[in-house]
Amino acid sequence: MPLLELRNVAAGYGPIEILHGVSLQVNAGEVVSVIGPNGAGKSTAFKVVMGLINYLGGQISFDGHDLVGVRPDRILALGLGYVPQGRVVFSQMTVRENLEMGAYLQRDKAKLEASMGWVFSLFPRLGERKRQLAGTMSGGEQQMLAMGRALMMRPRMMMLDEPSLGLSPRFVDEVFDKIVELARGGLTVMLVEQNAARALEISHRGYVLELGRNRFEGTGRELLDNPEVKRLYLGGEVRALRGS
């Protein structure tokens, strides 16, 4: 049984349907990328999983639980973390306060402190700056904070929406390295990423969406090597990554 599965899902914003029968699945322990052009419905797929937009049809399940109609806080409690696009942090709160917000469902102070220590071990820079206001940090540091906040509830799986968006090359490398490290530690990851070739390089499998529908799917390597995927969605990215 997949850990997360979307089957023939339709969803949108108000009366406007964006997803037209999209199917995705993620197995435990995998890294799965969702790529495609702007407006393909990638972020919309994440938002409907988290109950943030209008669900119009199909099936959505996580760890055997039907997610249709479930509140976002209940979904978080099931073990599904979510990092939205745009490095969304509470700018006037400290690093520590931001992380505490990520664990607002946790009432056991000992467990909260244990999660805090774990996140600081994953992101040492956050531990060094735990009293710093989040709004004064660099974009890359804010992305690390957003990821750390999503990890405070110790999720089984995390969905990352455009984690490298707008970051300097150094921080792009750090973000992808951290995703690989988390996956090796047992976290299941699904990411939407415009840096498509880089995402597929670290992924077990991937999906290509276009105009709210499935277009291609396969292993990361199969999609990287697919001539049509290269031509339509990757451009020169694969060549640049391989240094040729």
Can you give a write-up of this model?
With 244 residues, the protein is an alpha/beta fold. It contains 11 helices and 10 strands. The strands form 2 sheets. The protein has a 6-stranded mixed beta sheet, with helices on both faces. Strands 2-1-4-5 form a 4-stranded antiparallel beta sheet, covered by helices on one side. Helix 3 packs parallel to helix 6 (139-151). Mean pLDDT is 93; it is low at 238-244.
The global form is globular
Strand-and-helix sequence, N→C?
Answer: EEEHEEHEHHHHEHEHEEHHH
Instruction: Classify the oligomer.
Output: single chain
Major sheet details: 6 strands, mixed
Task: Label the structural class.
Answer: alpha/beta
Weakly predicted, low-confidence segments: 238-244
Q: Approximately how much beta-strand content do the residues carry?
A: 25-35%
Number of H/I helices: 11
Task: Provide mean pLDDT, rounded.
Answer: 93
Tell me the helix content: 25-40%
Backbone CA Rg: 18 Å
Supply the key terms:
alpha/beta; four-stranded antiparallel beta sheet; 11 helices; disordered C terminus; 244 residues; six-stranded mixed beta sheet; 40% helix
Helix-strand blueprint:
Elements: E1 4-13, E2 16-26, E3 31-35, H1 42-49, E4 54-62, E5 65-66, H2 72-78, E6 80-83, H3 95-102, H4 109-122, H5 124-128, H6 139-151, E7 157-161, H7 169-184, E8 188-192, H8 196-201, E9 205-210, E10 213-219, H9 220-225, H10 227-234, H11 237-242
Helix pairs in contact: 3-6
